[in-house]
Write a structure and sequence with these properties.
The structure holds 3 protein chains of 3 kinds.
Chain A: E1 5-14, E2 19-24, E3 27-32, E4 44-48, E5 51-55, H1 58-84
Antiparallel strand pairs in A: 1-2, 1-4, 2-3, 4-5
Chain B: H1 10-23, E1 28-34, H2 35-43, H3 46-49, E2 54-61, H4 69-79, E3 84-88, H5 102-107, E4 112-114, H6 118-127, E5 132-139, H7 144-157, E6 162-168, H8 171-180, E7 188-191, H9 194-199, H10 205-211, E8 215-217, H11 222-237, E9 243-245, H12 257-266, E10 267-269, E11 272-275, E12 279-282, E13 286-288, H13 297-301, H14 316-320, H15 344-347, H16 352-358, H17 364-373
Parallel strand pairs in B: 1-2, 1-7, 3-4, 3-5, 5-6, 7-8, 8-9
Antiparallel strand pairs in B: 10-13, 11-12
Helix pairs in contact in B: 1-11, 7-12
Chain C: H1 9-19, H2 38-52, E1 76-84, E2 90-91, E3 94-95, H3 96-109, E4 113-125, H4 130-147, E5 150-159, E6 167-177, E7 193-196, H5 202-210, E8 216-217, H6 228-237, E9 241-245, H7 251-263, E10 266-270, H8 278-287, E11 301-304, H9 309-317, E12 326-332, E13 339-342, E14 348-350
Parallel strand pairs in C: 4-5, 10-13
Antiparallel strand pairs in C: 1-6, 2-3, 4-6, 7-11, 7-12, 9-11, 10-12, 13-14
Helix pairs in contact in C: 2-4, 3-4, 6-9
The chains are: A alpha+beta, B alpha/beta, C alpha+beta.
Chain lengths: 86, 378, 363
């Protein structure tokens, strides 16, 4: 369920209606940011049916990627280790 | 695209799959709850990447699939009212009800319009003050806050010709119903991702605490799903049962406070709500509070409200619980196809049956299993 | 007994006025313009002929009569028709007029036929702005020049308000096949390579966004273009072009499925090789759409002999409409009639025909 996609806030448009302009891969749309606190231009937010649900935690994003890379490379170390034992 | 492409790297995926294989060769049955995860699994062929001892069961987290036939009939009856503009997400247009679908109703003259956001429906109402506009609200907690905020905006602006036909459902009661089901044998859950941005991860703790199963809240990119499967397998191997958050870049433990507040301001739980294929689940649906009755299309216009049973041949209930595989259903691929769907699993492209039919006919998993069981292939 | 006719000054004055080249001064098309009387003749001679004039059309008969340019050898003809009902009429990169010419030219070109002549039938809703009609006719004129075709016969009808959605155009086309290649969706062979001439999804994505209901904004344009000169360039390299199709409605996926079924082969695609513009990708991500199913109007799919594939791609890239050309897959034996995608993940999935139109989703 729930097709939601991260996009970058490029402009804060309407304070009263809580609208921001968000961009995904060169496509822009107005998005309601009323569910988030303190959104700034440059933030990445998760958008779903015209609303921003969450702000991307860039530190966590990097950490996840790092873990993924690590998991992927651990395999090479193991292979080397196994090879060295012969 | 940032925060998307990085989690789609194929080379890394293969290595992750190998790590999972290394962890354990125990047979494991894991359920991915969300339709979005089902979509990812089939789009990227993840089942074929995973070692043969890990079986993915495709859960009922597809809010379009589980709308009861009777409720879609109700939606169509609203759409047919003269002077009505009926707005809906694209997903619901083709869902077959008792005799017809919203798309067919549109062809027959009803003013049915597809919208991307409930705010677009509200805009239509403001632009067409002489007509009534109803929004077909469906989805889990990912989507219900958007409906809530839209209703609050409509109330603030005094828009009188806008209302909502509410079919929002909640994931936790469904999870509990699955876990309480006697014929269900699951070892762990790939947990909902976007729902969790709203409801947080605390609410899943009962799964590990009371039922002893690990649940990993997962992102929707293929590397997210693989990493989540890895984490679940690791828990099993280490004898743990915990709630972990693989989707930490979007999901926090407490969820979205404002969204939860909006939800509790506008909605209240229904005693029972029916799920196509699963039957009635307590407190699994929500409706508008009395305070917002003016925006409740059911109250404003009335709907037939008939309960329509699934056709006898339909075995969606067992497929949704993971007890049966799509090709084990007698009507899969014959009477029940994406063009002529009989049950919820074939209705939306994320239903397990539709996914296998559309994408997975070549799946090695499907072939292996079909060969083993001797079941006829489609 | 007959009386000799003598022209009077009154008669001559009226005749002079009648024989003057008509000019359309109306702002909106009315039912009279479709009535077959003076108003309609004014419309044709004073408006359409401004854009479509050529010796074959000028006599304004009910049909155009011509010899086919031949060198004595028996020639094969190609004949096609298509109707254009698109909304909105004007969109970034083109309009219904450009589509009406390019689409029919392309249907001819996909059989390897050199497009020669087009007919154009118009069904206009009462109240349609003449200024818009002029814009569309100009587009058609320009596209016809680009494609090297002439519009030699036509028809106009005007219907009451509400009985047509602004403007419908039908074009039929005739072309001549001047080579020996047998190009057909049924001729793909095992081992052939699949070539795509450019980026997928530009036209469909542009139209979806141009309708405005989704609130998305970006700088993409329709790729609508007549493709004959590209096909001509390809035929100059080789006649081992087995199948050619322009992937319009239903996208590349629909076209490949048609070829796979007709030829009873499996068409296997390499996901890594599929070219999609960043903005089209972005729109698809937001709406939950797959570029493989989105319409194109300036793209072609070619299934060609493996030995000539690289050379063809190189030649295509020299052509303005083929700059992004590349090999996207190959034909193999099993399973026949099916299109299969090798994902970037090393997995394989089927690319089936959709039931109906692809719709944006929230799930």
């Amino acid at each position: 369920m729930c097709l939601a996609i991260p996009g970058r806030v490029v402009e804060l448009i309407d304070g009263e209606n809580q609208l921001a302009r968000v961009e995904v891969g060169g496509v822009r749309r107005n998005v309601n940011i009323g569910l988030l606190d303190d959104t700034k231009v440059g933030d990445y937010v998760l958008i779903h049916v015209g609303f921003a649900l969450s702000k991307v935690d860039e530190r966590e994003a990097e950490e996840t990627l790092r873990l993924l890379q690590e998991l992927g490379s651990y395999q090479d170390e193991m292979a080397q280790f196994a090879g060295a034992g012969e | 695209m940032k925060f998307i492409d990085e989690y789609r790297q194929g080379g890394l995926a293969r290595r992750l799959a190998e790590q999972i294989a290394r962890l354990t060769d125990r047979p494991l049955k894991l359920m991915e709850v969300c339709g979005g995860h089902t979509h990812t699994i089939f789009k990227y062929g993840i089942e074929d990447l995973l070692p043969p001892n890990i079986e993915m069961i495709h859960g009922p987290g597809c809010p379009v699939c589980v709308i009861p036939i009777g409720r879609t009939d109700d939606a169509i009856s609203l759409a047919r009212r003269p002077g009505m503009i009926f707005t809906t997400f694209g997903d619901a247009m083709r869902v077959p009800a008792s005799k017809t679908s919203l798309l067919d109703a549109k062809a027959a003259g009803a003013d049915v319009r597809m919208v991307y956001s409930p705010l677009d429906a509200l805009k239509l109402a403001k632009k067409n003050p002489a007509q009534q506009v109803v929004f077909f609200a469906l989805g889990f907690e990912t989507t219900s806050p958007s409906t809530a905020l839209t209703i609050l905006q409509a109330a603030k602006e005094g828009v009188e010709n806008f209302s909502v036909f509410c079919n929002h459902i909640m994931i936790v009661p469904a999870l509990k119903a699955l876990l309480d089901s006697p014929d269900l044998k699951l070892d762990g859950f790939v947990g909902p991702g976007h729902v969790s941005t709203v409801i947080g991860t605390r609410c899943y703790e009962f799964v590990s605490r009371d039922y002893g199963r690990p649940l990993v809240v997962s992102g929707f990119e293929p590397l997210d799903v693989l990493q989540s499967v890895y984490q679940i397998a690791k828990q099993v191997v280490e004898g743990r049962a915990e709630v972990e958050n693989q989707y930490a870049r979007m999901v926090s433990r407490d969820g979205n406070r404002r969204a939860l507040e909006a939800l509790s301001e506008v909605f209240e739980p229904r005693d029972y709500f029916e799920w196509r294929g699963l039957g009635s689940i307590a407190h699994s649906g929500i409706r508008l509070r009395k305070k917002y009755a003016a925006f409740d299309a059911e109250l404003k216009f009335g709907v037939p409200g008939l309960r329509v049973a699934d056709p006898k041949a339909c075995q969606c209930g067992e497929i949704l619980k993971g007890v049966k595989k799509p090709w084990e259903c007698k009507v899969f691929g014959t009477a029940c196809t994406p063009e002529t769907p009989i049950g919820s699993c074939m209705v939306s492209s994320e239903g397990a049956c539709a996914a296998y039919y559309n994408f997975g006919r070549l799946s090695k998993v499907a072939e292996r299993a079909a060969a083993q069981s001797g079941a006829p292939r489609s | 007994m007959t009386t000799a006719f003598t022209a009077s000054p009154l008669f001559e004055r009226v005749e002079r006025s009648r024989r003057r080249k008509p000019r359309v001064r109306d702002e909106f098309i009315t039912l009279a313009h479709g009535g077959g009387g003076k108003a309609m003749h004014e419309l044709i001679e004073g408006l359409f002929l401004d854009y479509f004039n050529n010796p074959l059309l000028a006599p304004l008969e009910d049909q155009a009569v011509f010899d086919l340019a031949g060198d004595g050898r028996p020639s094969r003809l190609a004949f096609t028709t298509d109707s254009y009902v698109i909304t909105p009429l004007f969109f970034p990169g083109g309009d219904i007029g450009r589509l009406a010419v390019s689409g029919t030219v392309n249907d001819l070109a996909m059989s390897g036929a050199r497009p020669l002549y087009l007919s154009a039938g118009f069904i206009i809703e009462e109240g349609f702005p003449v200024a818009d009609l002029r814009r569309i006719l100009e587009s058609m004129r320009a596209a016809a020049v680009e494609a090297g075709v002439q519009i030699v016969t036509g028809d106009t009808k005007v219907v009451q308000r509400g009985c047509a959605d602004k403007l419908f155009i039908n074009t039929a086309g005739i072309g001549i096949i001047e080579h020996d290649a047998r190009i057909s969706a049924a001729n793909a062979r095992i081992g052939d390579k699949i070539i795509l001439s450019g980026m997928m999804g530009d036209h469909g994505a542009t139209i979806l966004l141009a309708r405005g209901e989704l609130g998305l904004e970006t700088e993409i344009q329709s790729d609508a273009a007549p493709l004959w000169s590209l096909v001509q360039a390809m035929l100059g390299v080789t006649t081992e072009i087995h199948a050619l199709r322009d992937p319009t409605r239903g996208g590349v996926a629909a076209t490949l499925n048609e070829i796979a079924r007709s030829s009873e082969v499996c068409l296997q695609l390499d996901e890594q090789a599929l070219p999609v513009r960043e903005e089209v990708k972005g729109a698809c991500e937001i709406l939950g759409l797959d570029p493989l199913y989105i319409a194109n109007e300036g793209l072609l799919v070619a299934v060609v002999g493996a030995e000539v594939a690289e050379e063809l791609v190189a030649r295509m890239r020299e052509h303005p409409l083929g700059r992004a050309a590349r090999i996207i897959g190959a034909a193999r034996a099993e399973p026949p009639g099916i299109v299969v995608l090798n994902t970037t993940f090393g997995g394989t999935r089927i690319v089936d025909l959709l039931v109906g139109e692809q719709l944006p989703r929230i799930c």
